[in-house]
Amino acid sequence: MAHGGKGGRLLRAIGSYFAADLLGVLGVALFSILLGRLRGAEELGVFSFAMALGTLAQVFTDANYQLTLPQQVARTGELTALTEAQAAKLVLWLPAFAAVLAVAAASGQPQVVFVTAVALFAGLLHSVGDTLMAGLRGAGQQERAARIIAVSSTIGASAAVAGLFAQMPLALLVLLNGVATALPRVAWGAQALHSVHPEWNPWLELQRLWRLRPSGAVELLQRLGALLRERFGWMAFGFLTVLFMRYGVLLLGWVGTPAAVGVYSAAQRFLMVLRMLPGAVLVVLLPEFARNPDRASLRQGIALSLLVAAAVVLPLWIAAPVLMELTFAIEEAVLPLRLMLLSFPAVLLSHLLEAYVLTLPGTQHRLVRAMVLILLAMLPVTLLGYAVGGVPAVALAYTVMEVLYMGAVAWSAWSGR
């Protein structure tokens, strides 16, 4: 990070990504609000649980190429890695589909299984768009990628909301949202990459992708084994990151009721919107720190992050009852919302520090170990808390987990360089 023009460019890129992700999350939040109001907390709980499972599969399929591809493209200027990454994603999608569908079946809710299967197919399309967006970020086109994400997310959310008013079943709504988001993103992403690198031809790359397909079951298993060995650290890091974020929804989906999932999900939707800012910081700064790690800029970023977090959390804490009444109209979600808001400063600092430490070889393994230890320690505490205090206890457990993880990332940042 630097001062002057470069600092302004980074701030614009962070702002663009925040706005793009914000539009996407607001679209999902609007759909969730309408779903909860029109069809009740139970169907909202089914939707939230199924989408959480779909997100876990998508993280496994992505194998955190969204973090490593921009670094690779930024350092080499080559786009050949994009097709190889997408071929790897297609191989990883098959076991992800089977495993997540088995987990959904274990919930004993047939509707969850069907909606999850639809979400998994939509996620396969999303993986192509994610690859193209990673290439654009590595090529220095962060703002252009952000615009594509913003418009395609808006199209997908609008289609889902229209389908909701048209009385479409939940599974069809999930499919409509996925297809209407992914197809424009893929088309515009391919066009944008070709305009930046005219030698990169999406049709030739599509043919190359077809040639890279496994010739049979034996080669498929061999490639899968090689990918698991090569990408295990990054895959585990991405999986656990999402597991942290979806911790309460997944746990309540297994041990609670659909209504309890709906209450927790209503509160979490506000935090999902807030998490777009830390996400934008990580996406934009990771390639920059890969080129030039700058501890002084990191200290400045930490101070600014604390001020931003305080300015965000305090007003929302006060306005929580009004916000919940105006949106989901679920009074029981006010206290969980307030408890989860306390995690936002830790989340913001964690993402800033991750952008710094993840450029170091092997750092993800250290963070993975920290997340596993936190999950193992907090799981029995959360189960006991839910039995005694209900959904608010699960929300408090989530906040404690994020604070503990922030401490682990901070230790890595200060001991790693």
Please explain how this structure is put together.
The protein has helices spanning about 5-40, 40-60, 65-75, 80-105, 110-140, 140-165, 170-195, 200-210, 215-245, 245-255, 260-275, 275-290, 295-325, 335-340, 345-355, 365-390, 390-415. Helix content is about 90%, strand content about 0%. The chain is mostly helical and about 425 residues long. The chain has one domain (about 5-415). Helix 2 crosses helix 4 (about 80-105). The protein has 17 helices and no strands. The model has no long low-confidence stretch (mean pLDDT about 85). The relative contact order is 0.12.
Low-confidence stretches: none
The helical percent reads over 70%
What is the total domain count? 1
Strand coverage percent = under 5%
Query: Overall 3D geometry?
Result: globular
**Mean pLDDT value:** 84
Number of helices: 17
Biggest β-sheet: count, sense, barrel?
A: none
What is the rounded distance between the termini? Answer: 16 Å
Order of helices and strands: HHHHHHHHHHHHHHHHH
Oligomer classification? single chain
Number of strands: 0
Structural class: mainly alpha
Rg is 21 Å
